[in-house]
Sequence to fold (104 residues):
Amino acid sequence: MSALRTLRVVGFLEGLSFLVLLTVAMPLKYIFGLPIAVRIAGSAHGLFFLLFISALFRAATERDWPRRRSLMALLASLVPGGTFALDRTLKREIEGDAGTAPHG
Fold:
């Protein structure tokens, strides 16, 4: 799988896990007294965040992204829903690559 496609998949999972942590697990902990929800969702989110950082490093290195672009992608992972916005730019970049690929 290409570096950009990997980053898209991992970014989706990281973003989804972040939203689940904030909107499901945190209320379960603080409203219903179930701290296990945060432990499980938080662990999953932590794993996906580390995978995201790894995929981001791979994509930025292979694509020779400017530091600013890499930093913006990293910042997107820190904002709830940010990786979904990042996904749109990655999708356009992949589509642009497909348009310039040799046919044959």
About this structure: The longest helix spans residues 35-63. Residues 22 and 46 are 13 Å apart (CA to CA).
